[in-house]
Write a structure and sequence with these properties.
The chain is 43% helix and 16% strand. By secondary structure, the protein is of the alpha/beta class. The chain binds adenosine-5'-diphosphate (ADP) and 1,6-di-O-phosphono-beta-D-fructofuranose (FBP). Its EC number is 2.7.1.11.
Length: 339
């Protein structure tokens, strides 16, 4: 306990995620409990370059657990990826007498922490905050659950029009490198097709287009029903709009492309995200007090634990293969054959 930090720097970085505020609140409350000060830096790593932080007292985090976005603002900060930027950030932390840094963000933000390590020797802890859920070593990330629920709500609404008009919709979901959102939403919405990194490669594009055209024709002829295809962003060259155009040009199939976009990142965090963010925020302060360094707080089988930051950014977290297989082999096929 003698070496516990006296002043923690806290920031949110990269894509904002619902529940980041809940994590900020938990860090501040836990730190207050242990008589540690928390300095909030704004605009991601830019805040360390700007050196204009604010002391986060209890009133600063009052009633923020239910708010989407982040009260500390977020940003991407190219300057932090230069030696000059990293040195400047390290100087700020020294000048502000911070002996620890907690960053709530995604894999890029954690890579940033590891780069800063070359110039600053304080304690560093990452808290996984990203809707993409693409962080190794943690079963879930803050924001994923809310984003999935938001997309489900949106697609359920689209389904009403799709059913009423027996129309085809192609809905593009976020997750630039991973299909966690796409597969979970696809299964939960009973989407007729799911297209993501796990089950599609652009090399098979022509074959896939033909297969989709056949499926759509079959569903429409035999069932007079709607057809919803969910696709991950970046998976089809040109995205949902290009796919809709190709179906029209090659097979004369009319479809409507719908890009859900940033709607998935916003809104009040759901119960799951509020709870995981709170647990992670408290665990981060406890990890600092225990002398841990260069780790990310994670949840594994409902328990909080620490994972080396290096391990967290390996990009090896796969979609549950049972989910992919169930959709490919059972759910979609069975649903499409219903009369
Ligand atoms: N290799 C790196 N070195 C230093 N900083 C980095 C590095 N990679 C990312 N960052 C910092 O982290 C920020 C957020 O990363 P980004 O990948 O955009 O979001 P996320 O953290 O959500 O994955 C970047 O804008 C940059 O400031
Ligand atoms: O808002 P931007 O800068 O266009 O970024 C969009 C990207 O951010 C995300 O919403 C979240 O990604 P990160 O959490 O890794 O930043 C991705 O799903 C999406 O591809």
């Amino acid at each position: 306990m003698g070496n516990q930090p006296k002043r923690i720097a806290l920031l949110t970085s990269g894509g904002d995620a619902p529940g980041m505020n809940a994590a900020i609140r938990a860090v501040v409350l836990a730190a207050h409990h242990f008589h540690i000060e928390v300095l909030g830096f704004f605009h991601g790593y830019n805040g360390l370059l700007e050196n204009d932080p604010t002391l986060l007292d209890l009133s600063a985090v009052n009633d923020i657990i239910r708010l989407g976005g982040t009260i500390l603002k977020s940003a991407r900060c190219p300057q932090f990826q230069t030696e000059t930027g990293l040195k400047q950030a390290a100087n700020t932390l020294v000048k502000q007498h911070c002996d620890a840094l907690i960053v709530i963000g995604g894999d890029g933000s954690f890579a940033g922490l590891l780069a800063l390590k070359q110039h600053w020797d304080g304690q560093m802890i990452g808290i996984p905050g990203t809707i993409d859920n693409d962080i190794d070593g943690s079963d879930a990330t803050i924001g994923f659950s809310t984003a999935v629920n938001t997309a489900i709500n949106a697609i359920d609404k689209i389904r009403d029009t799709a059913n009423a008009f027996e129309r085809i919709f192609i809905v593009e979901l976020m997750g630039r490198h991973s299909g966690h959102i796409t597969f979970n939403v696809g299964v939960a919405c009973a989407a007729e097709q799911v297209l993501s990194f796990e089950n599609f490669s652009a090399d098979n594009r022509e074959q896939k287009l033909k297969q989709l055209a056949q499926e759509i024709a079959s569903v429409q002829q035999t069932r007079h029903n709607s057809y919803i295809l969910v696709i991950a962003e970046n998976v089809w060259p040109g995205g949902a709009t290009a796919l809709a155009r190709e179906l029209k040009e090659t097979f004369a199939i009319d479809s409507t492309a719908c890009v859900l976009g940033h709607i998935q990142r916003g809104g009040s965090p759901d119960a799951k995200d509020r709870v995981i963010a709170t647990k992670m925020g408290v665990a981060a302060v406890q990890a600092l007090i225990n002398g841990e360094n260069e780790v990310m707080i994670a949840e594994q089988n409902s328990r909080m634990c620490s994972v080396a930051l290096k391990q967290a950014i390996q990009h090896q977290k796969k979609i549950n293969p049972n989910l992919v297989a169930a959709h490919e082999n059972i759910l979609a096929v069975t649903a499409q054959n219903q009369c």
